[in-house]
Amino acid sequence: MIGIDVVAIKRIEGLSEHARKRIFHPDELALAEKNPRPAEFLAGRFAVKEAFFKAVGEGMKTLSTQDVWTTRGEDGRPIINLSSRAQALAGKRTVVLSISHDDPVAVAVVLITGGNDGAI
């Protein structure tokens, strides 16, 4: 299962503080504060959320944006984190992602691999 999403960075720049706290996980907001381009950073994180929703085929019908968040591994790579509700939709599959930014947009791809038969 695969999902992709593109987000206009200006869309994130225009968000109020209240909206940012409603949409983004506290870990994402903390990382954004340390980033020299916080709107670009958060646009990529929002794209990950949307790409995950598309990959699992649920959209925001059963999940909120707080159920999916991105942190960084020791090597700097983005790591997707899932609430128990999001993990239930992904199952025991491997979830990988890629994020890219190029003003005026950020893009993310989420790939969910494996399953009962081990196929993609």
Brief rundown of the structure:
With 120 residues, the chain is an alpha+beta fold. 39% of the residues lie in helices and 29% in strands.
What would you say this structure looks like, in words?
The chain has 120 residues and is of the alpha+beta class. The chain has a single domain (2-113), classed as Ribosomal Protein L22, Chain A, CATH 3.90.470. It has helices at 9-13, 17-23, 26-34, 38-56, 84-90, and strands spanning 2-8, 68-72, 78-82, 94-102, 105-113. The strands form 2 sheets. It has a 3-stranded antiparallel sheet with strand order 1-5-4. A two-stranded antiparallel ribbon has the order 2-3. A hairpin with a 5-residue loop joins strand 2 and strand 3 (78-82). The model has no long low-confidence stretch (mean pLDDT 92).
Work out the strand percent: 25-35%
**What is the CATH domain class?**
Alpha Beta
- Report the CATH architecture: Alpha-Beta Complex
Count the domains: 1
Number of helices: 5
Number of strands: 5
Q: What radius of gyration results from the CA coordinates?
A: 14 Å
Largest sheet: 3 strands, antiparallel
Uncertain segments: none
Distance between the termini: 7 Å
Kindly state the mean pLDDT as a whole number? 92
**CATH level-3 fold name:** Ribosomal Protein L22, Chain A
* Category from helices, strands and their pairing: alpha+beta
Q: What is the overall silhouette?
A: globular
CATH superfamily: 4'-phosphopantetheinyl transferase domain
